[in-house]
Amino acid sequence: MHLTYDIIVVGSGFSAIAVTCNLIEQLPASAKVAVVGDDPGFGRGTAYRTELYLHRLNVPAGRMSLLPHQPDDFVDWLKGHGRRLQAGDFASRSDYGLYVRDTLARLLRKRDGRCRVDFIKAKAAGCVERYSSTLAFHLGNGDEIAGKNVVLCLGVGNATLPVAPDGVPASLRSRIIENPWRLSWLRRVASSDAVCILGSGLTMIDQVLALRAHGHSGKIDVLSRRGLAPLGHAWKPPTPLPIDVERLPNTISGILKTLRAKSRTVADWRAVMDGLRPETQALWQRLSSKERARFLRHALPWWNIHRHRVAPDVFDRFEKLVLDGTVRFHAGFLKSLGAEEGRLVAGFRVRAAREIAEIRADWLVNCTGMERAGISHSPLLKEMSRFELIVPDPFGLGIQVDAASEVIAPSRISPARLFAVGALTAGQFWEITAVPDIRVQAKAVVEEIVSRG
Ligand SMILES: Cc1cc2nc3c(=O)[nH]c(=O)nc-3n(C[C@H](O)[C@H](O)[C@H](O)COP(=O)(O)OP(=O)(O)OC[C@H]3O[C@@H](n4cnc5c(N)ncnc54)[C@H](O)[C@@H]3O)c2cc1C
């Protein structure tokens, strides 16, 4: 089957749904849209598929509306569904997934004057430029669809294990959890099993709390390059300290020095981070390539723990487990994965030392996250790169786009327009992985498409 659309949205996570909702709101009835995605939990993606209440949003409900022009939309949805939460509270991620799907369903129910939207459950496997001024996608189900405008919303995929488990016998391989978001692994863990988690970000905290919720009471060793864990939001958030980006230095070391000095002038350092938050994209865009590289090499772990904070009650729970010795942190680089006497052995070089140390565990869970997955996780993106339809970002942050999120690919000849939304565009925007930024980008991309007709 071959079908042609005005707009093709590729993906089925939050970004794809945010783009689709804006398209429904802005396109004329004559327009035809296809949304292509292979995810059974359409609209929920990895982030909002979880069923556990303790997997909470890390952004207050009042900033999580899918539609930036209706800021109270999510808070109203929560109230309408009997949740006693206010704008400053941290709702569950499963509720957020339901809200996203409800919002889309609500818009689709309005049949009068709305554009046609076809949801196609398939993976986009390849892409070619057609002489008909379209980009055509080969789908996993054998169909082909072509569009004059395309929005890539592919997320970033999961990072793979940093070391191949060559030394691990087949009988123990099932104890290496490469994708912790398939939560069924938790049911196989015995209460006293020792667990080793690779990576110490938000995913690690989610997995630790999920283990506890499943009755696990054994020790948990966490290994990451710096051994730093996310910090918590304040119970009483401070007023953000306004930051004038134009007056910040141009080097990462100068910026950090200024921010540290500002932190000393306020009662709570979060005021500085929260003041910087709306300006982060502008700050990133001012940095030279050299300084961006410097940031990624030296400052990223510190940025992550201060910027990506957890809900205060979640933080308190996690901290108790650290203080009572249940969760132990190790800073170092994973060097080997082996097995001994029926257990997994993770060998690592201790940070700032030559010493090699070992963690022995019954389970090894990969929580190294998705901050810089580049394009290697996606066969589609790799093929598009080979055909020069996209150009990878030089820092491995996704693909090159301009300030309007339009893909920059000088060798592309077709006038069909290609955009990207979400974390794939981090090279241009940096701060583009969370809902408050993606929803603005999704709306802007749709406005751009509509304005050019
Ligand atoms: C665990 C977790 C918790 C988070 N919590 C928060 C939070 O509290 N607040 C917040 O603001 N942000 C949070 N985030 C950030 C979150 O990433 C974004 O909010 C959002 O979910 C990103 O959506 P996305 O659609 O860009 O990517 P994804 O959700 O990864 O979706 C990408 C989609 O593309 C599909 N796809 C990939 N390749 C193809 C292909 N070739 N053909 C068709 N479909 C394809 C995938 O199947 C997937 O459905 C969290 C992220 C994670 C992982």
In short:
The protein has 453 residues and is α/β, with parallel strands linked by helices.
Describe the protein's topology.
Elements: E1 2-10, H1 14-26, E2 32-37, H2 73-80, H3 93-109, E3 116-121, E4 124-130, E5 134-139, E6 144-152, H4 170-173, E7 176-177, E8 195-198, H5 202-213, E9 220-224, H6 252-263, H7 270-276, H8 280-286, H9 289-307, H10 312-323, E10 327-340, E11 343-350, E12 356-361, E13 363-366, H11 379-386, E14 417-420, H12 426-429, H13 435-452
Parallel strand pairs: 1-2, 1-6, 2-3, 6-14, 7-13, 8-9, 8-13, 9-10
Antiparallel strand pairs: 4-5, 5-6, 10-11, 11-12
Helix pairs in contact: 1-3, 1-13
Bound molecules: flavin-adenine dinucleotide (FAD).
Flavin-adenine dinucleotide binds at residues 10-16, 36-39, 45-47, 57-59, 93, 123-124, 153-155, 203, 378, 380, 422-423, 433-435.
